[in-house]
């Protein structure tokens, strides 16, 4: 029995009868033979493995590099540590084949994307889904035997286009804080990832899972955190495992030091610069009738300093409603009769939409990046 401190959170006890009922049909669960043969999944309740599989969701959203404005350094790094090694897969059967991405050139097993909210951290991961898509832990992906799987539309990787598998990788949202089962969920998560490797485990808001350990922390939370770090160490120590753990956070300063050390590549995803903000507006306006000129785009870029990508999307959404608000009979008007969006709509929208990130918050990210980040530009 654990003694609760004043700052710890109360966790309701588990009804033993209910727990037995939840897993009473374990013997009736028939797992894929590939799971039964995996040493990493031994002693893991088949129901937990099945739960992970059942929570996998196929996301059909297609994201291209050109859809992500700016962030050239982050894109280049993703290409370097994720896409390039996956274009040259080296499986267990190929241990006698010495590939170029081995030894010191081997890709890191941990990647952290940090920065203010609304800057495209999750969007980058969804772009990776086409070269590796994923989300595990809170989100998980799944890949083919020797290569990542993608959707119907193949991704563009530059001049040397690579053809991927037929099936798109999947995303799963899991609750790793299940009382009494969190540690098993973590082990099952990494075990299933090993079965499907190459795989990417994506944890959104990773600070909520791997926050700094404290004296007032509940024991179950501490055990989950410790198990996750142990499993992450396991992938780091093995040269054969092709698993990448990607975390995204708006609060990097709250990460546990041990987690920070294991997430070797730490990329700062800053607010978009002027050119990137203009590209966001242009991309969003492509699907709507508008009368914006080059000088109008320049004006919007100048007046949106400090806006995040999400702020720019909200601005465009507000401006797009401008022509609708002047319609008297919304029920009978034809869509072709709605006037195009103009710069006046954006000027009115700028009176309603403000930057969501403060200067003080930005300085926190800049300082943390200076101490622990990998830089923001390529020279």
Automatic annotation (TrEMBL):
Which SUPFAM superfamilies is this protein grouped with? P-loop containing nucleoside triphosphate hydrolases
What sequence ranges are listed for the domain AAA+ ATPase? 107-273
Question: GO terms for molecular function, please?
Answer: ATP binding; ATP hydrolysis activity; microtubule severing ATPase activity
The UniProt record lists the keyword Zinc-finger: no
Q: Does the entry feature the keyword Repressor, yes or no?
A: no
Listed InterPro entries? AAA+_ATPase, AAA_lid_3, ATPase_AAA_core, ATPase_AAA_CS, MT-severing_AAA_ATPase, P-loop_NTPase, Spast_Vps4_C
Region Disordered: which residues? 1-28, 135-162
Q: Which Pfam families match?
A: AAA, AAA_lid_3, Vps4_C
- Provide this UniProt record's keywords sorted from A to Z: ATP-binding, Nucleotide-binding
Q: Please give the family membership noted in the entry.
A: Belongs to the AAA ATPase family.
What is this protein called in UniProt? Fidgetin-like protein 1
Upper lineage: Eukaryota, Metazoa, Cnidaria, Hydrozoa, Hydroidolina
